[in-house]
């Protein structure tokens, strides 16, 4: 029987009673030390091959193994003399899935466990090992020990292993007999090995069978389909008949709200009950200078901040105050570091020209307006105000652009104030109907360049010069990207190369990315997500919420559910 326990937002399933292993079967948690494995779970001949010496003969290609080996790691208990008590796989930037029976002899105390990536032989060698990178287990988020043969455990790891090793996708639709099945893992605690075969009968509601070789300590390995998606978690080796089996991912998803969120693209989900008021505005910015972006909500007179925790997540709101700031009709709130202290500040601007700045204090909070003035600037019809560092002095500036092409900039002073306008020019560019204007650093000079995109798919960009101004020179080309009038465009460094990229979000929640290349140009749609994400979003913002130097997306749904999606190391979602 199982007991359901709410732990924060995660549903934890705890089995009451020990797991059982049927006659002729062996759970492969590795109670026998390396070298004395006696339970045969090889199907026919031993076809296991070391991943860096794989020859492509087992039904999957060498490139398949190279692409899918990195998220696989050994998990070891502190008392185990072997590097692998079991095997597991990253399924998010710091989320790791393995078999629950691995913990039966040791318990679920997180600090007793470590996860070891890159335990592989050097390519072309069978004696020299690559350097191993280890990560602590910080939390056991969810586990089912054995319920009708359904078992798995989901762990949170310290740090950000996904930044280096990527992660595997969970396949939502059920697998079928005859499909390709591959297992990459640490059989008998060996350096990483691979074998492949096919899914076999019999299937049960919660398990699949396969003719893929495993040994003790293979438990917890992901069973991959032809596309490299997880279709099962390996749990058991059989001698009669000769097949192995594991828990179906489709059955695990049916039991786990946490993993359903992950399969739908959310790296993190929590009902924060935050920023759901009608007319509320959500900003992202690093208000406490800890290197991670936070969330700030303005709703009427109230301002509330949710600070990112060490994992780049949001489990509570922090500071809140009724500032009486920027709540006049037609006012809009902007964020940026206006005084160069590495804390993002607030700027309010309304249609009369009233401009006010509230500087963040050392605690990442706001005590009130620090400077204000009525500026006869950027008041014309159709004018757009953008915030970004134009001159690479570490302070965010203001740029105004209207539909006639008139462009002007105001540089922030060292005290976070603005003159009426520092420069202006008429630029005959980005004036076509439906054009969207954004800012981003596309050429690594720390100055915000201008990016224009329209409904035809034409993308062009104008580089800021050394004075923080723009000439009439621009570059561009037509790409099949973000052509829907209802789509929203976001700027962020999604692959961590310090160049700002473009993300297009359709009204359905489907997202695609165009990465800036090494020449600072956008030439193609780089990736499109397989399915929509956060389709019921009330707010969506981009920001660097963790420390992996890639921009993430956070959405808040009308019911208060907060979701984060982290890009993969290559910049795809």
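Q: What amino acid sequence fits the structure above?
A:
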């Amino acid at each position: 029987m199982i007991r359901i326990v709410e732990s924060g937002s995660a549903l934890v399933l705890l089995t009451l009673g020990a797991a059982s292993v049927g006659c002729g079967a062996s759970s492969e948690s590795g109670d026998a030390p390396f070298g004395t494995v006696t339970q045969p779970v090889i199907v026919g001949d031993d076809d296991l091959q070391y991943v860096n010496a794989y020859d492509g003969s087992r039904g999957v290609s060498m490139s398949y193994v190279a692409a899918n080996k990195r998220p696989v790691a050994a998990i070891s208990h502190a008392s185990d003399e072997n590097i692998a008590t079991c095997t597991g796989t990253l399924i998010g930037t710091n989320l790791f899935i393995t078999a629950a029976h691995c913990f039966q002899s040791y318990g679920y105390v997180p600090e007793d466990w470590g996860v070891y990536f890159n335990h592989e032989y050097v390519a072309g060698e069978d004696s020299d090992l690559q350097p191993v990178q280890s990560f602590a287990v910080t939390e056991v988020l969810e586990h089912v020990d054995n319920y009708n043969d359904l078992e798995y455990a989901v762990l949170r790891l310290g740090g950000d292993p996904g930044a280096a090793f990527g992660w595997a996708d969970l396949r939502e639709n059920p697998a079928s007999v005859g499909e390709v099945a591959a297992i990459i893992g640490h059989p008998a605690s060996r350096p990483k090995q691979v074998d492949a075969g096919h899914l076999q009968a019999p299937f049960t509601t919660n398990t699949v069978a396969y003719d893929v070789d495993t040994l003790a300590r293979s438990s917890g390995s992901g069973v991959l389909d032809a596309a490299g998606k997880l279709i099962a978690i390996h749990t058991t080796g059989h001698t009669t008949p000769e097949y192995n089996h594991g828990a179906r991912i489709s059955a695990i998803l049916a039991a786990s709200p946490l993993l359903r969120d992950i399969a739908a693209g959310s790296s993190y989900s929590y009902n924060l009950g935050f920023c759901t008021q009608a007319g509320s505005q959500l900003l992202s910015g690093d208000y406490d200078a800890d290197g991670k972006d936070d969330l700030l909500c303005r709703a009427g007179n109230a301002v509330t901040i949710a600070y990112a925790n060490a994992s780049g997540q949001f489990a509570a709101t922090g500071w809140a105050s009724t500032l009486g700031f920027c709540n006049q009709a037609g006012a809009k709130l902007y964020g940026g570091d206006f005084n160069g202290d590495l804390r993002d500040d607030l700027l309010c601007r309304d249609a009369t020209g009233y401009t006010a700045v509230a500087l963040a204090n050392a605690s990442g909070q706001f005590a009130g307006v620090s400077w204000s003035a009525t500026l006869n600037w950027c008041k014309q019809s159709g004018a757009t105000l953008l915030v970004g560092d134009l001159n690479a002095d570490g302070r965010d500036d203001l740029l105004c652009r209207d539909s006639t092409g008139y462009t002007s900039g105001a540089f922030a002073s060292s005290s976070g104030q603005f003159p009426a306008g520092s420069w202006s020019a008429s630029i005959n560019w980005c004036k076509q109907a439906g054009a969207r204007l954004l800012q981003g650093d596309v050429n690594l000079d720390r100055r915000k360049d201008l990016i224009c995109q329209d409904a035809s798919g034409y993308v062009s960009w104008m580089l800021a010069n050394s004075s923080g101004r723009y000439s009439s020179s621009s570059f561009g080309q037509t790409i099949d990207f973000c052509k829907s009038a209802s789509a929203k465009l976001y700027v962020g460094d999604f692959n961590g190369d310090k160049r700002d990229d473009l993300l297009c979000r359709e009204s359905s929640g489907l997202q695609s990315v165009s990465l800036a290349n090494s020449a600072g140009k956008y030439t193609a749609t780089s990736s499109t997500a397989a399915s929509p994400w956060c389709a019921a979003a009330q707010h969506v913002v981009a920001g660097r919420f963790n420390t992996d130097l890639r921009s993430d997306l956070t959405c808040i749904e009308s019911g208060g559910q907060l979701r984060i999606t982290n890009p993969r190391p290559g910049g795809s979602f």
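Q: And what stands out in the fold?
A: Residues 11 and 256 are 7 Å apart (CA to CA).
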